[in-house]
Amino acid sequence: MSETMDSKLRELTYRLMAMAPETPPFPEETMVQLKTSPAPAPPRRRNPLVWVGVTAVAALLVIGLPLLLFNTGSDPSPSTTVPPATQTTGSPSTTAPVSTASFDVTLYFLADYVEDSTTPGPHLVPVRRQVAWPLVAGQPDVADSLGAALNALLTGPTADDGRLRSGVSTAIPDGTELLGVTVDQTGDEPRVVLDFSSTFESGGGTFSMGARLAQVVYTATQFGIPSVEFALDGETVAVFSSEGLVLDGPQTRDNYRDLLPSIFVEQPLPGDTVVAPVEIIGVANTFEAGLLYRIELDNGDVLAEGNAMASCGTGCWGDFTITPQYTLAEATAGYVVVYDASARDGSSIDVVRIPVSLEPAQTTEPTTPPGTTVPPTLSPGERSFDIDISALVATPATGTVVVDTGWGSGDGEAGRDPKGWGPCCFDVAGDGTVVVADTYNGRIVTYPPSGEPRMLATFDLSDFIPDGIAVDSTRVYVIGYTNRPGRPYDIAVLDLETGRELARDETPLDINTDLRSTDFGDVFAGVYGQRLTWHRLTADGVPLGPDSDETLGYLPGETSISVTYNAGAEIGAEIIVLPAGDSPTTTYGVLTDQFVFGFTTVPGSPDANGVVVAVTPSIGGGEPVTLLFLGSDDGGLTANALSIELPREFELGTFNTIRYAFGGVYVMTSTADGIQVVRYELP
Amino acid sequence: MTDEEIYRKYADDLVRFATGLVGPFDAPDIVTDACLRAFGAVAWPDVANHRAYLYRTVLNQARSHHRSNLRRRLRDIRAATPDVAFLAEVDIDVLAAVDKLSVQQRASVVLTYWEDLTPAEVATRLGISEGSVKRHLARARTRLKELLQ
Q: What does the pLDDT average to over B116-127?
């Protein structure tokens, strides 16, 4: 090998090393920030000797607690009756509830239920409980749902819970009352404020204090609002209890992951009746994300077993969904077992056994001829309302190619970067012209319905990489990524006809989603934080004040549904309904095992709007692509599917994008030869 | 030595190594995750060569690291660290060049040209054979030939 090559590689390496960021601090994960430190935080190390010590400390804490702090499941609870939910809300509705309905909720208690656990217990354990709360206008109210679930949690474990999970207990002191539930969705970060009686912080040591907060946070966050703020007797809590736990801002599930076992299964739960094939859902933090599972009959026979992967592992938490395939002749008792194998000796570790009733698959004949779209109606509620894509019969569709380019930098070609990423995005103008942000050529190109493509504008890639676009009747808005620290985005406004630059300025917005124009001629910039918010821009691309009512969780008149990607793994999406006004957000479902590569909104009547989500089960290519039409109306969420064949090259994870315009859906994909934009008609 | 002392001793080098594997944006996260994983591993108390073990954990972590496009990567970074002053120093050409290499090839390049290790030493550090190291280096040179000459 030539010396020149060596020296160039060395230079390359040195230039790379010059970019090295600062070393992060020692990663000592603690469950909560401790102002004072009365007990050592549990060490991360899984040395069995250390563990004995930790377990002993935990045991001392448990034994040392007054009995009233630990209502064990084996003791019959004084009452399992849930107080009327309306008593629990801070501002009870004056409207008389139309009806009351029972819902399954998940309550989180504590138990040492993981066999050969690699982390010290007790851990959080989910149990199923049916609670009732009123429906207002046919819909459950989030505050009511939360109140009912939390009152059930405060009541403590029942004898039934104890039968399914021996030693189940609660760290919440007996006599704790829920004084109020406030759902605050006005800010960028929706949260619930829970007001408890001061009994909530009485008794117990550090573990018990952290554990009771965790129980409440996990129980309260199942309704789609991820953050919880605590108050005691009406006073917001910054430092919790005599243990001095500092609650640094709203609490989320992430703050309490130390209380989870390495494998935390949230579905099925003990006592569930599961119809084949069972879907096992949870989060895990195992070595290299590996998991093993087994479906066991009561007599010990193994019905199915295999391995699976979480979306992340080796030090980070990942989601998993496992659908073991098996056939069952008749209903029987059994276990769903999820575990890991020790990297040292292969023995089973972190074994979670869930006692369930197994039922054979329902053999209903498909009543719909192939090719017909079935629009199922999904009800609001818990996570189990997942949209089952495989249950949708997709209508095959053929689109019309409206843009077809080669790769390159010449006329009519689109640029790609060394990784294979093509143009970021496009929008459709009023006359059907497709306007493409040709990111890596640094230019904006228009493709009219008939006629030749035209280069509208060019940018210097060293300070403006086109990374988002929206077109209204006269203007083109382009987001440019700059290398500038702090505020890395510029917004340029171009004249749609001439390409002349009308305005360009840095924006304070962190526009990491895209720009969208609405039917009313407004342009919004999407910022993805805790949730997607849209900020209205002036005609010059300047955002109106972040505190103004122009900052929205949805686009006015266009949609009441937002889709968020499951960050990180890029598999799956949550469909979040964001109604206008003060109504609560509802998380409808989670698309699991689907790669979401684009979504767009579809305008409709005020009470029936929708989104189109493009999904495929694999980024590996060859798999079908489904356009999923999700609509929202008073009856809940409806779903229709259109199966399309896209020419695509997913080798390097090419970014794709879709837009709705004029009754059709435009989809841009990258192929081996270039980009294509194809229009599909809505069914 | 406590875990913290071990971390202090090797963290700077690990961050540079991770920068070579995944770029400057994700390097701190990779190192943090890898160290948490290593310190929590059942085998950790018995590990004799902490440095080699940590390098391998960082390499494994980087290999399972999902590729993501510019915007999503930036989105994640900004969510985690509001202050992104270091972005000013990003050398796009270098990142584009390194992007042509596999993670294994990057690991061999960084250890060879930054830490000045011989192929045998790189092999020990990464727990692979010397032949593999030479192969990774040769392929890295081939892949970058067009770009660098």
A: 88
**Which residue of A23, A289, A652 is in closest CB contact with B15?**
A23
Token pair, residue A265, equals 């299964």
Say what the ipTM of the complex is: 0.82
pLDDT, residue B69, reads 37
Residue A70 confidence (pLDDT): 27
Which of these ranges, A15-29, A228-242, A346-360, has the smallest mean pLDDT?
A: A15-29
Handedness of CA A477, A479, A484, A487 (dihedral sign): positive
Amino acid at A178: L
Residue A606: the pLDDT is 40
Query: H helices of A200-317, where?
Result: 206-220
pLDDT digits (tens, 9 = 90+) for A147-168: 889 999 999 998 888 888 888 9
Helices (H) and strands (E) in chain A, counts: 5, 44
Q: How far is the C-alpha of A509 from the C-alpha of B77, rounded, in Å?
A: 15
Residue A494 has pLDDT above 90, yes or no: yes
Q: How confident is the model at residue A631 (pLDDT cuts 50, 70, 90)?
A: low
Question: Do residues A129 and A156 lie in contact, with contact meaning Cβ atoms separated by under 8 Å?
Answer: no
Tokens encoding A630: 């999700």
Task: Provide the token pair at A577.
Answer: 């309904």
Nearest to A475 by CA among A415, A527, A427, A438: A427
Distance from CA of B129 to the nearest CA of A (A): 20
Q: State the DSSP string of A397-437.
A: E--EEEEE-EESSSTTEE---TT-----EEEE-TTS-EEEE
Residue type, A471: V
Q: Which residues of A touch B64 (CB under 8 A)?
A: 288-289, 312-314
Of the candidates A129, A86, A88, the one whose C-alpha atom is nearest the C-alpha of residue A105 is A129
Question: Quick one: pLDDT band at residue A305, thresholds 50, 70, 90?
Answer: confident
Whether B31 and A23 lie within 8 Å, measured CB to CB = yes
- Tell me, what amino acid is at A86? T
Pick from A493, A503, A497: nearest CA to A429 = A497
Count CB-CB contacts under 10 A for residue A628. 25
How many Cβ atoms sit within 10 Å of the Cβ of residue A211? 27
Residues in chain B: 149
- Residues of chain A with Cβ-Cβ distance to B29 below 8 Å are 24
For strand A318-322 and strand A33-34, is the pairing parallel, antiparallel, or unpaired?
A: unpaired
Q: Residue written as tokens 């310190």?
A: B39
Nearest to A120 by CA among A189, A60, A184, A185: A60
Share the mean pLDDT of chain A: 70
The pLDDT assigned to A331 comes to 84
**A277 prior amide bond cis, ω within 30:** yes
